[in-house]
Please model this.
Amino acid sequence: MFSTKVFIGFIAVATALAALAQEPGFIWDKLETSTELKWTDCYTQPLQCARFQVPLNYSDPEGRSASIAMIRFPSPLAGTEQYMGPVLLNPGGPGSSGVDLLAEAGAVFSQILGPNFDIVSFDPRGVAFSTPRASFFPTEAQRQFFVSSSFDDVNATSDGVARMWARAQILGALVTRQDQKDHLIEHLNTENTARDMLRMVEAHGQEKLQYWGFSYGTVLGATFASLFPDRVGRLILDGVVDSENYYAARWSDTLDTDKTLQTFFDSCFEAGPDLCPFYESSAQAIARKLDELTRTIALRPIPVITNTSYGLVDYARLRVTIFNSLYAPYVYFPPLAQGLADLVRGNGTALYQMLDTPLFDCNCGTPVPLPTITDAIFAIRCTDGQEVRDTVDDAEDYVRQLLRLSQWGELLAIARVSCAAWPRQQNKHFRGPLVGNTSHPILWIGNTADPVTPIASAHKMARGYPGSVVLTQDSPGHTTLAAPSICTVQHIQSYLLNGTLPAEGVVCPVTGPIFSASQPSNDTTRGLAGRQEADQDIIRALERLRQSFKLRPLF
Model:
């Protein structure tokens, strides 16, 4: 049986971060767009925002322009000899909001990276608060209707892949119709965003890029390094996507998703029944228990009513909840274990609430609100990739290929299938080669059990950039943000401050187990005993950053 609801933002670290509404009293549209960085206080002190003008089409730099929403946590050392310029962050996606990332966690990133740097992020062109936006629907109500009808229960039956493919034809037609009006889609690509970043660097009065990119952000970083190898200052690429695979629209990396799930079984067993409610007599027994529960739920869904919504814990919701939990095991494995244990007893509330979102309330006739993240995910991903014109038979063969790689392969199929009717691009943009003799070597980082960006991708990508080093973090989860490691942070700090790379083959441990006696979500004490005060501060900062993660289904 193919999975039903499908997670479409599967290489975004920020899809797990809490999205922020526009703050009362701060409206992005009222900021002046300028080719200079005119910072204005926004959100909470000391955050500052700006709207930065770039060409929409770099082949016509005097033509239409785009307005890039930028945000920074300023360095307290600006104007001193200790100031070392901006570090740009990209949270992934494609299509995730860097403004949301920094508004939520700017102070934490500043604490992790140190006071020498401005911490800067942005919404890439087409995304969230940047304009023009990727938007294929005249109202939010129509968008919500399409999303709920398109990706709810699409693969529960034998014709599920065919339904997914057919709805991709509708999506392509909607995009084509909208693009005939605004002629925008071809300009929403990673090459242009890399060029935007170069302009941001120059607007800061800097020559070279300092950057930390997560997940899809590693595609953006690798693209920048290929286009502008002599403008690389420091590049940290964390949770590495195989960029060649991405640009080819294959989405067929050898996945470690099953390996990540195995860490749930292993850590639950090691924790014991007092700490893991889903415990059984062996890791294998826990795995069998989950298989049995999944079969039961597929036949007999559990109804749930919460204070904000209602629905079913069915095969689809169970599978997607488990899959999403693999992104941040330290945050979500403990509540997942409780939710599964409750589900065995017929109570689906805890598991349902892990993905619970308020029901959509239509304010019909009003303009589409910001941000329109779902549209941007499709816009960038499908525009970036090689043209996909798969038939239904091709799509079904593709899903079968992914399933041979992982039991979770069908959850990733929509990344390609959704692009099957994307409008043809008139102009070519960068899709490789992904190589470059950079002015400073790149630091690539991967986890030993990342569910969607396996460590093998980091090693593959590093071979194209002489002098690169791959740092391994010995943990499950997506990107280094998923688990606490003083070792990893120290290597990142050393690389940014003085350019020092770790030795080849370094594997960083993490602090503390996934299941612990002090498990509540506000716990900041794990792994602190016997550590230096500076290390304790970093562990607390990493804990706060992980607690920013919120599971949000993007179907």
Summary: Residues 257-353 form one domain.
